[in-house]
Amino acid sequence: MPTLTLQYFLNILSLSRCIFCFCLLIACPSHALIVNSQLPGIQLEQELKIWQDPSREMGVNEVAAQRDLGHFLAQKNARHSLGYSKNAVWFSFVLNNPSSADLFNYVEYTEAHIGSVKLYTRQVGGNWQEQNFSVAQSANNRPFATIRPVFLQKIPAQSQVEVLMRAIYSDHEVMAGPIIADVRIWGEQAFIQANNLEMLLWGAWRG
């Protein structure tokens, strides 16, 4: 009988450790990128997790639940190509600001030929905030007058911001198109300088 009692105790201890590790995994959905005001368009690598929704209908809370269950996976293709897809492709990452001042960083999805991109952000325990980009929008109606989807995001001092990004090749037709896993984070001044140069070259190319 003492042997059974000891074995029972060890089983309970092992189960408790598993539950604790699982809770830690949920609390840290992905590696956080430490942000600062000088980031020169850092490409997310190990910080970026990906999941696809074939229904194209799931909302941000449903998708966050999929992330917390561990269904988001790291990108394994060094070229960052996900091939052709008609699915809603979701990207998950965390931005961490350990400094004592609020920061404003730009989040860029680098594929210009994309039907729409939605950016959902929240602090831990907060509500999701949404920003939208659509290829059908004129430059003046986009979040910023840029060629590619770009969003300005505030990261409060000494805090982390969870990010879920939804990219879909075509919002109006169920058709497949190329999807890439290339998300970059910019410091405010670095992005403005790079974007001004790109828009100048774009304008010159178009004549």
Q: How would you explain this protein's 3D organization?
A:
It comes from Iodobacter fluviatilis. This is 7TM-DISM receptor extracellular domain-containing protein. Residues 46-166 form the 7TM-DISM receptor extracellular domain. InterPro entries: 7TMR_DISM_rcpt_extracell_dom2 (IPR011622). This protein is of the alpha+beta class and 207 residues long. The chain is built from three helices and 13 strands. The strands form three sheets. Strands 1, 3, 4, 6, 8, 9 and 11 form a seven-stranded mixed beta sheet that branches. Strand 8 and strand 9 form a beta hairpin. The protein is globular, with a radius of gyration of 20 Å.
Topology, element by element:
Elements lengths: L1 H26 L4 E3 L5 E4 L5 E5 L6 H9 L4 E2 L6 E5 L2 E10 L5 E7 L6 E8 L5 E6 L15 E6 L3 E10 L8 E4 L2 E5 H19 L1
Parallel strand pairs: 1-6
Antiparallel strand pairs: 2-13, 3-4, 3-6, 5-12, 6-11, 7-10, 7-13, 8-9, 8-11
Quick description:
By secondary structure, this protein is α+β, with helices and mostly antiparallel strands. It is built from 3 helices and 13 strands.
